[in-house]
What we know:
Layout: H1 3-6, H2 22-38, H3 45-51, H4 56-62, H5 66-89, H6 95-112, H7 114-122, H8 129-155, H9 164-176, H10 178-181, H11 190-204
Helix pairs in contact: 2-3, 2-5, 2-7, 3-4, 5-6, 5-7, 5-8, 6-7, 6-8, 6-11, 8-9
Amino acid sequence: MSAAEETEVEAADQPWGEVTPDAARRLLVAAVEAFAERGYHATTTRDIAGRAGMSPAALYIHYKTKEELLHRISRIGHDKALAILRTAADGPGGAAERLAAAVQSFVRWHAAHHTTARVVQYELDALGDEHRTEIVALRRQSDAAVRDMINDGVRAGEFDVPDVPGTTLAVLSLCIDVARWFNVAGHRTPDEVGALYADLVLRMVGARKP
């Protein structure tokens, strides 16, 4: 599934709706496809413009550099990821219910939008220093959202976790890696993978059976 097709999977979950005008959005979609396929450094602005059906000169009307395009993609993707985790963290239920909801929705997004998520999660080092610092700060907020849910479970006696920071890192790494391997031709849907991973994470934290 291409980045263009991903934008049509579910309109309400479409990550580029806030990008205007349409030409700027088309360039972002084209950049995601190119970065996912060839990698950031091997992609040229001509590659991106060609995929968008535009001239290289037209790209610079909307984005000053290729790195600015990557930053825009990364910022929107990380904002979305953080919003997913915070929504679950602020939701109803105990720590186990909230952590399961967070993992399920987080994994589902990484599977349903795996092309976009691969660029968002794995091209961080291609960003300039200022933009990388900004994105790292967002990643730390995502880490904090998961860590707080695990700590809540430990305090409530729902979880048995000797190393909360290490377990938080393991949970996030497990979820994010879905973007690397997920294939729409596989046997599981994004919802099914999300449910599987939610169960695995609850086992990881030693969640007590009701």
